[in-house]
Amino acid sequence: MRSIRHAKLMAFALVFVAFPLRIPTVQAETLFPYVQTFRVSAYYSPCEGQSYYVTGSYEGDIRLNGNGTNGADGTPVYAGMIAAPKTYPFGTKMNIPGIGLTAVHDRGGAIVTAGNRGQTYDRLDVWMGACEPGLERALNWGLKTVDVTVYGLDEGVTEEVYFEEFTASEAIVKNVILAPQLFPEDVWYLSNGEDVEKLQGYLIELGYFAGPITGYYGEDTREAVVQFQLDNGVISSVDDFGAGHTGVNTRKMLDLMLAKFREEQDNEEFQAYQKGLLLIDSYPDLGMNRISFSRDLVLGMSGEDVRILQQELTDLGYLRVEATGYYGEVTEHAVFKFQQKMGILTAQTDAGAGVFGPNTRSTLNRIVESRTQALSNIALNRSSQSDSLIATSDTSKIASLVRTLSFGDRGADVKTLQTLLRELGFFKGAMVTEYYGQQTRTAVQNFQLKNNLIAAITDSNAGQVDEVTLAALRNLL
Questions:
Q1: Which pLDDT score, from 0 to 100, does residue 5 have?
Q2: Which sign, positive or negative, has the C-alpha torsion 297, 299, 305, 311?
């Protein structure tokens, strides 16, 4: 039960934060208290002789968490102590929901401000204790996005940490899943058994693990879990505590994602997507095999997946040399430029720059999957609409669509484009012309949206007849 003192403190806090000022970062002249959204992770101090470790060994957990005896300012560690970016001075008081009112006494390499290392919010890391109790509490906390009340360097505000019980009954997504169903207990790295076999089977079903099912939680299974966690927001970086561990938040997310996946299999739209994938093979000119990168790639490696990566980087405009299958310095730099463009990191001095690791791999896999979805729709449309379009379209005109087009272009092929889009119901202009203006751009955008070639009109290729859109238009017949 929480103390009367804590209840009074919370009442005191509510008076000040009823209408708090929200600001993105701590400034030189800040009005305290204020409420700010943070991404909050957890860490602990490992002890020798534990029955389990998140990395599989005491030494590994020491490397991940540190010895955990003192904060960066020399303060002995205590439950609830915060590691925060340097913009928050040591001693800054904060009230974190589920933890209590505590203070900043530590720093961390991954504990950065928003905009760095791909972070949307400023990061905090909370020390959860030592040995197995601290580990369990840290894993159950996981990684959360919470609104924190910041009091600044206020000696009149008293720290009081209460630690709610972060148990399996805690919901992860809008209380949809109240407790893990597939795995009542954590599944540990380097463990063996039936639970590991089940985990591998579910990861195969969701497309994260290539098998075989061995019942051993080795590095390949751990990497698949990391990829699942990254894709579903359980962690934001491979450096986060609990990365690769099938803990309570990962178990809950497995419940949710597997239920959604199985529901989608019965969904009409999903079935259409699957039909479109099969039809792609019937149209060699679509030239698309489904690919997915499943391992990290670094400087000096060779192989078919390196060659495919190079081809993808070439298609995206980051690499301008022939795909050789060797991961050299040119490929490394192209990967860095891709990472920079995608907001995965900001500078070549950042950890992982030029390395095709889990975050970068996940991002490129999503791009590839989006393209596959577009090509599936193209194949499906070609199959289902060709008869009606043949009746209303001039095939000889379609044959004249041979180049990519964008706003401001002129020519007979622009007129052909407008004619086709009008017949399809997208072009609303009073007359067709040889000028690619706003009406043509709007028509192309609507065509792209209808055929899932773009997600929104803010996409970089929205309103442009790029290669994929050109193929969609030509392949409708």
A1: 32
A2: positive
> Phi first, then psi: what are they for 44, rounded to 5°?
-150, 175
pTM of this prediction? Answer: 0.47
Beta strands in 32-143 (DSSP E): 34-45, 82-83, 93-96, 100-106, 122-130
Contact 421, 441 (CB under 8 A): no
d(CA 371, CA 357): 21
Q: Which residues contact 256 (CB under 8 A, 6 or more apart)?
A: 172, 173, 176, 177
Q: What are the beta bridge partners of residue 126? A: 42, 82
Helix, strand, coil shares, percent, the chain, to 5: 40, 15, 50
Identify the H or E element spanning 151: strand 144-152
Establish how many alpha carbons lie within 13 A of residue 253's alpha carbon, considering only the half-sphere containing its beta carbon.
Answer: 22
Task: Classify residue 306 by burial, with Cβ atoms within 10 Å: 0-12, 13-18, 19+.
Answer: buried
Quick: pLDDT tens for 210-225. 778 889 999 999 999 9
The more confident residue out of 234 and 423 is 234
Task: Give the Å distances, CA to CA, from 325 to 152, 159, 293, 464.
Answer: 54, 57, 14, 32
Could you tell me which residues come within 8 angstroms of residue 250 by beta carbon, excluding any fewer than 6 positions away? Answer: 142, 225, 228, 229, 234, 242
Rg from Cα positions in the chain: 27
Q: What 3-state DSSP class applies to 34?
A: strand
C-alpha 417/C-alpha 403 separation (Å) is 11
Contacts of 243 (CB under 8 A, 6+ apart): 226, 229, 235, 237
Quote the tokens at residue 137: 């509490």
Amino acid at 293: F
Q: How far apart are the first and last CA of the chain?
A: 71
CB within 8 Å of 218: residues ≥ 6 apart: 190
* 299-316 pLDDT per residue, tens: 999 999 999 999 889 888
Q: Give, in degrees to the nearest 5, the angle at Cα 38 between 92 and 243.
A: 115
